[in-house]
Design a protein that fits this description.
mainly alpha, single chain, two-stranded antiparallel ribbon, about 75% helix
Length: about 250
């Protein structure tokens, strides 16, 4: 009985760490009871299909605590990598907002309960709708399945492998975020050059007064043109997950 309980607890610990910071499922807008119920049900499922790779009967109390800590660390690493790659669209939106001069505009993000900027939150919500509409949430279950196929309960990858995955995912987030925002940055650079030339040609014109609505209008137009790239990033995100996740 104790052996079966420990085996189930190992599975529950990894899945709990994974769902703790996972996008969509880990947000504060999801009721805690729903999170707990989903975590327990998935743990029962994976406990039946994922055999324990160690002799549970020979595990001491100290070793059991270390195994649980290792499973929690592995689950958190998986969730962190997915969360970082999921934040690319929001990062691109924040870059665009800075160019539009909307850095002081804050709204309450209903999903996370934190302050956010309106354009970044809007792009993130659109990305979430596209992601869920394409059954992207099934990818999270696939990640768990592959993690138990590669590392059964009681075994985890090395710390170096998990750290390398998190660092690589963070680098990919910055690169992909800048690449998605690059057309907008180029458009705003052209706008700044045009305004500078206009200021030289017409010195009496108040360029600062004119530039604000022009920058906002250009930003909204470019954000509309940005949406097809958001849909295309889902395939790229899948590629990055297959590359950096320690599975």
């Amino acid at each position: 009985m104790l052996e079966s309980l420990l085996a189930f607890t190992l599975v529950l610990t990894r899945i709990s760490g994974f769902f703790l910071i996972l996008p969509v499922f880990g947000w504060r807008a999801i009721p805690i009871r729903v999170k707990v119920a989903a975590t327990v049900l998935l743990s029962f499922f994976f406990a039946f299909i994922a055999p324990v790779s160690i002799d549970v009967a020979q595990v001491s109390t100290v070793k059991a605590v270390l195994l649980l800590a290792s499973e929690a660390t592995y689950g958190l690493a998986l969730g962190l990598i997915v969360s970082v790659l999921f934040s690319v669209v929001k990062l691109s939106g924040q870059i665009i907002e800075r160019q539009m001069g909307m850095t002081m505009a804050n709204v309450l993000d209903p999903m996370t309960g934190e302050n956010a900027r309106p354009l970044g939150s809007l792009l993130e919500m659109l990305f979430i709708l596209l992601f869920l509409g394409a059954n992207g949430h099934h990818m999270f279950l696939l990640i768990l399945s592959k993690s138990y196929a590669a590392f059964p309960p009681g075994t985890i990858p090395t710390v170096q492998t998990m750290t390398s995955g998190v660092i690589t995912a963070s680098s990919a987030m910055l690169i992909a975020g800048l690449r998605l925002a690059a057309p907008m940055l180029a458009a705003f650079m052209v706008l700044m050059v045009a305004l500078a030339l206009l200021a030289r040609l017409v010195p009496e014109m108040n360029i600062l007064f004119i530039s604000m609505p022009v920058r906002l209008g250009l930003g909204l137009i470019m954000a509309g043109a940005f949406l097809p790239f958001v849909n295309g990033y889902m395939k790229e995100m899948t590629h990055w997950m297959a590359k950096v996740l320690p599975l």
